[in-house]
Specification:
21 helices; 8 strands; globular
């Protein structure tokens, strides 16, 4: 990991500007960062802009998948909504079959730590700019700090849900003397750090930038609330989760987009009233080779049409639910991120429907079943959900209601990198009281010859997290392989 952090200082960072694009070279020589760059508030904005740019594509000269591709695979590959396409790799097939080893390159976490280091660089150097730029206000500094803290927290939230315990680096690596061999930090301790960081970020984050596009494509106070609600849900801290959701709901700044033009307005045009935070940049479509072209690596699972996007029970030739439009069932093609390259479709990190379902889940687990069911019904009504997917649930039957919410999340957030984390969150609840969710998953998705092995592996909670990639173990002697992969 230390080599990853060091190399991030060699890349170019994009300046956000309405009139032009400018690239700034942050070179890793002692003193260069302070002496030649961190002088004005515009330099800080350029660095923050680089944090956002890193979410979309690897830096120039870095041969790696985009961060978006890793986010998609970590959230979908081990779940049940995608299957192998014509060009799926052996490594990806191994993950689907719960047969991953430490030499599987999908387990590389470099993309996440690059963004983390960008954020740490902002956090370390931005405060010093106040000494050289008298126009750099405390409010502006606090806003940039909030953005960096929130993006860093989002990266760590993905890492801890994927690997469980990971190195926690809270300072920038900008020169060779900053390199460190770091051990893993316990997931629970990282979660505490995330909560503390997000609470600090909430104090400095803005509610609006005065631009709808920036309000959706940059971190606002409501982005902080959304991520914090998601983190609390993972931690099984349901009351605090509900509190964060209510901050967003009571703001009255967000609403569900109507059925007409839902996909076009939310995903293609972007900056919709439904969006809380989206990755907004016109880029080479990272999903084109994954999901669209004739040699695509992934296709929609055959279970989608029988368990998720079920045809209308009155008129089977029509599915009035607006959400299956992201999936072309006859060819199993996933179209949610466009069929063109480049694509202008926006990756939705959080939108209003997510907050509704997060709150519904927390309510269901705290005796608020009636309100939880009302939230599910409201979402289904706005999405024209068909009767075939409706379930009659007693609001007091917690597990049945949670299963209903989980099924609705599958329809609402199909192919958005959330499904595996949803399944794991439900399975691990109350000391893995719902391990059956993952056992059923293995029986359904794993190759028949490997199903029993996969089911046996999934009985061990250590198998629910990926191994540390072998090169990280070689370069950092303080790292220890995750327990399941030392057998």
């Amino acid at each position: 990991m230390k080599n990853i952090l060091y190399s991030t200082c060699l890349v170019m960072m994009l300046v956000m500007s309405s009139s032009c694009n400018k690239w700034l070279d942050l070179q890793p020589r002692d003193g260069i960062t302070r002496q030649e760059f961190w002088k004005t508030k515009e330099d800080v904005l350029a660095a923050v802009s680089g944090c956002y740019t890193s979410l979309l594509a690897p830096p120039p000269g870095i041969g790696d998948k985009s961060l978006l591709e890793y986010m998609f695979m970590y959230g979908e590959l081990r779940a049940d909504m995608i299957a192998g396409g014509p060009s799926i790799t052996t490594e990806e097939t191994d993950i689907i079959n719960v047969n991953i080893t430490q030499d599987n390159t999908t387990a590389r976490w470099a993309a996440f730590y690059r963004t983390i280091n960008y954020c740490n660089t902002v956090l370390d150097f931005a405060p010093g700019v106040k000494a050289t730029d008298p126009t750099f206000t405390d409010a502006a500094l606090n806003g940039y700090v909030a953005e960096a803290l929130t993006l860093r927290s989002l990266m760590y939230f993905y890492l801890l849900r994927t690997f469980r315990d990971v190195p926690l680096k809270l300072t920038a690596t900008v020169k060779d003397t900053d390199l460190q061999d770091l051990p893993k930090t316990k997931q629970a301790d990282i979660l505490k750090q995330i909560v503390a960081d997000l609470k600090k970020a909430e104090q400095g984050a803005v509610t609006t930038y005065g631009s709808t596009r920036f309000d959706k494509g940059r971190v606002t106070k409501f982005t902080v609330n959304a991520l914090l609600a998601d983190v609390y849900l993972w931690m099984e801290d349901y009351q605090n989760c509900i509190t964060e959701c209510n901050k967003i709901i009571s703001s009255q700044r967000f609403a569900l987009v109507g059925a007409a033009g839902w996909y076009n307005n939310v995903f293609f045009k972007g900056s919709s009233i439904e969006t809380i935070f989206e990755f907004d940049q016109a880029i080479e479509n990272p999903f084109y080779n994954l999901l669209v072209n004739t040699r695509r690596r992934f296709i929609g699972s055959p279970f989608l049409s029988t368990e998720i996007f079920i045809p209308d029970d009155v008129d089977p030739d029509n599915n009035y639910d607006i959400r299956p439009g992201s999936y072309y069932s006859s060819a199993f093609t996933i179209q949610k991120y466009g069929i063109e390259n480049p694509s202008y479709v926006k990756w939705q990190a959080y939108r209003y429907s997510d907050i509704m379902m997060i709150k519904a889940e927390a309510l269901a687990l705290t005796g608020g079943g009636v309100e939880a069911l009302a939230l599910v019904d409201e979402l289904r009504l706005r999405r024209n959900a068909v009767n075939a997917t409706k379930v009659t649930v007693d609001p007091s039957e917690t597990e049945a209601l949670c299963d209903y919410i989980l099924a609705e999340r599958a329809r609402e957030f199909a192919f958005e990198g959330k499904r595996w984390f949803d399944l794991l969150r439900h399975a691990k609840r109350n000391n893995y009281s719902r391990i059956d969710i993952l056992l059923d998953l293995a029986a359904k998705t794993v190759s028949p010859t490997l199903q029993q092995s996969a089911i046996t592996k999934f009985r061990d909670p250590n198998s629910h997290y990926l191994p540390i990639y072998q090169s990280e173990l070689f370069t950092d002697p303080n790292l220890v392989q995750n327990p399941f992969y030392t057998k």
